[in-house]
Amino acid sequence: MKKPFEVIAIIGKPRDQQAIQTHKELYDWLMEQGYRVYIDDRLSEILDDVPQEHFASLIQLGKAADLAIVVGGDGNMLGAARVLSRFDIRVIGVNRGNLGFLTDLNPEDFHSTLKAVLDGEYIEEERFLLETEIHRHKQIKSHNAALNEAVLHPGQVARMIEFEVYIDDTFAFSQRSDGLIIATPTGSTAYSLSGGGPILSPSLNAISLVPMFPHTLSSRPLVVDSKRRIKLIVSPDNRGTQEVSCDGQVSLPVSPGDEIHIYQSPNMLTLIHPKDYSYYHVLRSKLGWSSKLF
């Protein structure tokens, strides 16, 4: 019987020695199981006992592998997702970070759970990404993708900025605030949650717009259909340069008068989870919600 996965990539730049050990354990165990295994080439100098032909770039891994195992916290998953979503590849995470909303597997005893997943016992779900484009004088100056959120903010100096929000080219509202968080359901438990945004179930096709410290009491988070195209027009009177931050990892400079276009990416990230995965169990454990009463 054909295995669901034959070529497996191990991804994620480790922050500490324990995470490096997890990479090595995964590599050795997968090789013993008879899989073709490749490793993120950012680890080639650290894992010097792995043959060089087993290292490849993220793009090469996306093209060649059936499954990517991302080791680390959600930050590593976000970085990998922006690249891997372009390819036909499944992704699962081993949690070596703090919160770990996107990383299911326990690094201490991944063997039995991962074996079941590799044998085809898993849940599959698709998560959409956002595309962000900075338009200046009718030209696209920069763009990037985000799995969690795109955030308009003032950059290094904390100051209020003014901007208008359009949804499908229809004016929605103007705002004077510290910025705006535009989040996917995946990102609704990240920065958006800290800003008072709603938690969106991952299967929802929706985008939330969460104001950051608005200079009015009437401003509230807004949830729109994910097929809507969001346009922010930054006031020409704003001082200095603003930024749009994608997943807190990539910054796109914004000048006064620029337009920011945010829309659902045509690419999807295909996440897989062990069979016993429950999104609400993850929420309860990560957010400290109460257990059952009876």
UniProtKB/TrEMBL annotation:
Gene behind this protein: nadK
Protein name listed in UniProt: NAD kinase
Gene3D superfamilies attached to this UniProt entry: Probable inorganic polyphosphate/atp-NAD kinase, domain 1 (3.40.50.10330), Probable inorganic polyphosphate/atp-NAD kinase, domain 2 (2.60.200.30)
Annotated InterPro entries: ATP-NAD_kinase_N, ATP-NAD_kinase_PpnK-typ_C, NAD/diacylglycerol_kinase_sf, NADK
Family: Belongs to the NAD kinase family.
Function: Involved in the regulation of the intracellular balance of NAD and NADP, and is a key enzyme in the biosynthesis of NADP. Catalyzes specifically the phosphorylation on 2'-hydroxyl of the adenosine moiety of NAD to yield NADP.
Catalytic activity: NAD(+) + ATP = ADP + NADP(+) + H(+)
Active-site residues, as the UniProt record annotates them: 74 (proton acceptor)
Top-rank lineage group of the source organism: Bacteria
Binding-site residues, NAD(+): 74-75, 148-149, 159, 176, 178, 189-194, 249
Matching Pfam families: NAD_kinase, NAD_kinase_C
Cellular component terms per the entry's GO annotation: cytoplasm
GO biological process: NAD+ metabolic process; NADP+ biosynthetic process
Subcellular location: Cytoplasm
NCBIfam families in UniProt: PRK01231.1, PRK03378.1
Recorded GO MF terms: ATP binding; metal ion binding; NAD binding; NAD+ kinase activity
UniProt keyword annotations, A-Z: ATP-binding, Cytoplasm, Kinase, NAD, NADP, Nucleotide-binding, Transferase
EC identifiers of the protein: 2.7.1.23
Cofactor(s) needed for function: a divalent metal cation
